Amino acid sequence: MAMSTTTATVDETTRLYLAVGRLSRILRRSGSPGLGQGSISALATLAYKGPMRLGDLAGREGVAPPTLSRIIAALVESGYVMREADPQDGRASLVRATPQGEQVIAGVRSERLHELHNRLERLTEEQRTALAAALPALEALVSEDI
């Protein structure tokens, strides 16, 4: 009896992993303005969280500082990010999204939400209700408090 419960849990875990991964890839492909996912993620963090030091941004993004430095250099070159002096420490600098960078992120978000909305519309009412009921559990699953 315990074996089938474990097998069912593993199967559900695998199905959830595959579904979330596929949905994430589908949405990442939507609205990407020629930027890689790392660039879009870093730019979105700056647009939503405000200016920050490169080390703090690297920590938030979960990437090595040299990798993030390359991403930021390309975003600065594109006009999506700017560097400025840190008012708390004149030796350090902050990076911030420019208005053009914020506009790019708003467009990406809009395209991705549109894609998700279209996919949700293809579901039955019962399936949409089940997803809505699962939202608190999904939000708990991705909470940093776990």
TrEMBL record:
Q: Which UniProt keywords apply?
A: DNA-binding, Transcription, Transcription regulation
* GO-annotated molecular function: DNA binding; DNA-binding transcription factor activity
Entry's InterPro entries?
Answer: HTH-type_Bedaq_tolerance, HTH_MarR-typ, Tscrpt_reg_MarR-type_CS, WH-like_DNA-bd_sf, WH_DNA-bd_sf
Query: What positions belong to coiled-coil segments?
Result: none
Domain HTH marR-type per the UniProt entry, residue ranges: 13-140
Protein name, per record: DNA-binding MarR family transcriptional regulator
